[in-house]
Amino acid sequence: VLSGINSSKRVSWFGETNLKNTTTLLLSEDSNTLYVGARDSVVFLDVSQPGTLKLQNKVNLSPSEEEIADCTKKVDNPRLKCSNFIRILLQLNKTHYIICGTNAFKPTYMYFVR
């Protein structure tokens, strides 16, 4: 038994078939929302109820067709590498967030208002 661990917090499982390469996590200031950066998207999970994860929103952040076409000329595995892998999720204040991704080898960032 580990001391100092709150037993009311339990690990839960969330899965969605189109959600891949989940590499970046950010917990909201109020600890009620978990932002998950993945390949071509960010999902917002409600984690306010112990033992339950509920999808609040999913934002599609796929590269444009033009960006994908440009990327496929440069890489050896375009199917995998010409996606937008979300690498940074940063909360600026209570309503504004920055999302940064690889965007088919044209790194980009955006502001998100919640």
TrEMBL record:
Recorded GO terms, molecular function? chemorepellent activity; semaphorin receptor binding
Where is the Sema domain positioned along the sequence? 1-114
> What biological processes does GO assign it?
axon guidance; neural crest cell migration; positive regulation of cell migration; semaphorin-plexin signaling pathway
InterPro entries named in the record: Semap_dom, Semap_dom_sf, Semaphorin, WD40/YVTN_repeat-like_dom_sf
Q: Does the keyword Glycoprotein apply?
A: yes
Instruction: List the keywords (alphabetical).
Output: Glycoprotein
Q: Which domain of life is it from?
A: Eukaryota
Q: Name one GO cellular component term.
A: plasma membrane
Q: Please give the name of this protein.
A: Sema domain-containing protein
What organism is recorded for this protein? Answer: Erpetoichthys calabaricus
